[in-house]
Amino acid sequence: MPTRSPSLGLVERLLDAVNPPRAVYAHCDIPCGIYDPHEAQIAALTVIRMDQLIGELAPPAMDAKPEERSAFISKMARYTAVKEQHAEKVKQEVRVIWGDYFTPDHAKQFPQAHELVWKILKQASKARQGTNLADAQELLKLVQEFAEVFWQTKGAKTKRQPSMQKSGGELVVPVSA
């Protein structure tokens, strides 16, 4: 095996110092062929649940003790952070499926898919910005529609089944013919 010149390493480091390499991020891009909108649905259900918990959270009374105020603030911050993370996860999961799995033939077969993805991305942002339960429920509805289209591209029929989660709601799942 040829040895590497020490001066070459110095030159590379100097070039990196002058023009630092940029970080590159990507999905696996093999493509692995393993795609499933299930995680997007679970993330949307989590957004719903966090909005439910925020809505149930009673603000501390005016004469509340500092630890009661602190507990309220802590819960509100945690619920909000989780809601925002999962709304972003919806966007990420849908973007990956849309960008890596869907083909031009799928887009022709399901012309509504492009607008549906756009609506999901916008609705996920809207769900992040507030705590309106209706916004979170609309996000789930759109993600369910996306799941149905996705499974149709694979020739699978779907059914909706109860999620069995505290948030309620349903999951779209494929069924074998």
What does this structure look like?
The chain has 177 residues and is mainly α. The mean pLDDT is 90. 63% of the residues lie in helices and 7% in strands. The chain has one domain (35-175): Up-down Bundle (Four Helix Bundle (Hemerythrin (Met), subunit A)). Strands 1-2 form a two-stranded antiparallel ribbon. It has helices spanning 6-18, 38-56, 66-101, 104-109, 113-129, 133-153, and strands at 157-162, 170-175. It is built from six helices and two strands.
**What is the CATH C-level name?**
Mainly Alpha
Shape: flat
* Helix segment tally: 6
What percent of residues adopt helix (DSSP H or I)?
A: 55-70%
- What is the number of independent domains? 1
Strand content: 5-15%
The count of strands amounts to 2
Our Rg estimate from Cα atoms comes to: 23 Å
User: What is the spatial order of strands in the main beta sheet?
Assistant: 1-2
The name CATH uses for the topology is Four Helix Bundle (Hemerythrin (Met), subunit A)
Report the biggest beta sheet as strand number plus sense, adding barrel if it closes: 2 strands, antiparallel
- Mean pLDDT equals 90
Model regions low in confidence, pLDDT < 50 over at least 5 residues: none
Query: Helices and strands: which structural class?
Result: mainly alpha
Going by CATH, what is the homologous superfamily?
Nickel-containing superoxide dismutase
N-C termini distance: 56 Å
Order of helices and strands: HHHHHHEE
| Level-2 CATH architecture | Up-down Bundle
